[in-house]
Amino acid sequence: MNYIKAYTKAAGEEYPNSFANSVHFALCSGDGEAEELNQGCGILYALAEIRKDDTLMERGIEHPVIFERNGQYGILAKYVDAKGNALLPDTLLLWTTADFIDFSRQREVSGADYAALFAAADTSLPISDALCEKIRARWTPLFSLRADYPNKLLVRSARELSAVMAKVTYSDGSTDEKRIFFDEGEVSALKRGCTTKVHGEIRAVSPRFPLAVGYADPVIFPFNGSWYFLATNDNVNDIGIFVRKADTVEGLFSPEVKEYCILAQNLEKGFVQTFWAPEFHVIGGALYILFAVSGSAWGPQCHVMKLKEGGEIIRAEDWEEPVRVVKSDGRPLAQDGITLDMTWVLSGEQGYLVWSYRRGIGTPADTGSMLYIATADKEKPWVLTSSPVLLSRPLYGWENTRGTINNEGPFALYANGKIYLAYSGGDACGYSYAVGYLIAEDGADLLDISSWKKLSSPMLRSTFVEGIQGPGHNSFFQDEEGRWMIAYHAQERKDYHCRCSTYHRVHFVADGLPMLNVTGKRDVATEIAEVEVDVELL
User: Fold this and answer.
1) Are the CB atoms for 430 and 18 separated by under 8 Å?
2) Which helix (H) or strand (E) holds 224?
3) Beta bridge partners of 372
């Protein structure tokens, strides 16, 4: 018999109350062995309470129990504050689910009405084998099972071997096509009319970390046959916008690569500090950089900079003067706070700007950073064509931890007819930084908040990828072979506080969800990596 168990965890230095006081799940077998789900990270979080002054009060849960009723499963839990103290003794939190994958939004329910059910329910519940496997496929790390490729190849030239692919199958039934890297010496020794055993290797796209030391908010971008790397440059105290150019993605991180300053500090024009989170986007057929910058007084605001027609990205003089993003009536995007981390999102043919906005930072009136969205003019993408709409606030504990209250760094991936808007929460320079998803149908009205589904748990955080701590503020790109990659910054070790960039492969699971934690030996197990093929050169 299989069971699913709900529980909370003890808080610790690397797992504060904001994470610990959430609903964790594990799969248990009849002999008592437990398999933690979501790599030991909480899956359901109590929503923070919004005060009258628009600030947030962190909330959590304790003593979760599970019950089954009318063909649905329910999770009930006590309501606690940030320190774990009980709140509203006559109120419980309730979530419902059919499969422990998709959950309803939390409801506050009367403790009196649910007292008997809460008392009778247990922390674990028996589930069917089929449901157990479905839960395991979603909430445990995938791993490669086998690799399929031809045992014999007939080729007219050795170059044809570079196109040979292996199909790797994973534990949930999903697959990925991977290139086989054949031994160059054995390939060069091939003789016409002869069959020769040639050895090769299937390689995972695993993060080399740190890849670019002192660079945050990375963007890797193909344009006109070249590759470009753009990021916040902590090495120069975030002053200036710098870009690298190379023929390949790997070339962007070679020791010999050159870096070009395309926007320097200019006190007269008000480009003084916090040159933050620059992003390349092609909008209306033209190339832009969206970024934030402050004047002499600290306070980053979103700006847009356009590449002149026929211009070269690495030449500062080929870029037009940056302009500040404004509302439809010409007023600044914000006059009472900071704006930053702007990105461009398409839904069907409609373009949108999404950005992070925060008021009162560093004061008791700090609202935390929030994601806003608005339509924009493709010909003038620095001008909104709708009123801004609040898209997301850091209400979950993993977004709102130890006083760091963030929803920031949005960037869209388009796949399977959906828009996966990744964003980051937690401490941008710390261990708690993590990436989550907002998901909408491609073609939907993105100003309609009901078009969006916000996942309650992070998709990428510390411990999800070995050797990487505090991953966040990501972008996506497709590499030379068309594979989706996630680029992000993280820390090399706890309390290092040097943000470093890297990237790895995005894996699409059987139901289409892009997973961000399939790397290294999980991506390609050692026992399936080695290849031996009979090759006949015709």
Assistant:
1) no
2) none
3) 355, 390
At 460, which amino acid appears?
A: L
- Condensed to tens digits (0 to 9), the pLDDT of residues 419-456 reads 999 999 998 888 889 999 999 999 999 999 999 999 99
Q: How many CA atoms lie within 13 A of 246 on its CB side?
A: 17
Token match 């990744």: residue? 422
- R_g (Cα) of the chain, nearest Å: 25
Look at the block and give the residue holding tokens 């015709």. 538
**What count of Cα atoms within 13 Å lies in the side-chain half-sphere of residue 5?**
17
Burial state string for 314-333 with b = 16 or more CB within 10 A and e = fewer than 16: beeeebeebeebebeeeeeb
Q: Cα(204)–Cα(191) distance, rounded to whole angstroms?
A: 30
Q: Alpha-carbon distance 194 to 536, whole Å?
A: 6
DSSP letters, 462-480, are TTTSTT-EEEEEEEEEE-T
168-210 pLDDT, tens digit per residue, is 999 999 999 999 999 999 999 999 989 999 999 999 887 788 8
Say if CB 172 and CB 183 are below 8 A apart: no
Helices and strands in the chain: count of H runs, count of E runs = 6, 40
Structure tokens at 373: 């969205």
Judge contact between 110 and 90, C-beta under 8 A: yes
> CB neighbours of 265 closer than 8 A, spacing ≥ 6?
239, 240, 271, 272, 273
Q: Which of 121, 170, 132 is nearest to 37 (CA)?
A: 132
Cα(178)–Cα(320) distance, integer angstroms:
41
Q: Is the peptide bond before 210 cis (omega within 30 degrees of 0)?
A: yes
CA–CA gap between residue 384 and residue 386 (Å, rounded): 6
Contacts of residue 298, defined as CB under 8 A and 6 or more positions apart, other chains included, come to 273, 274
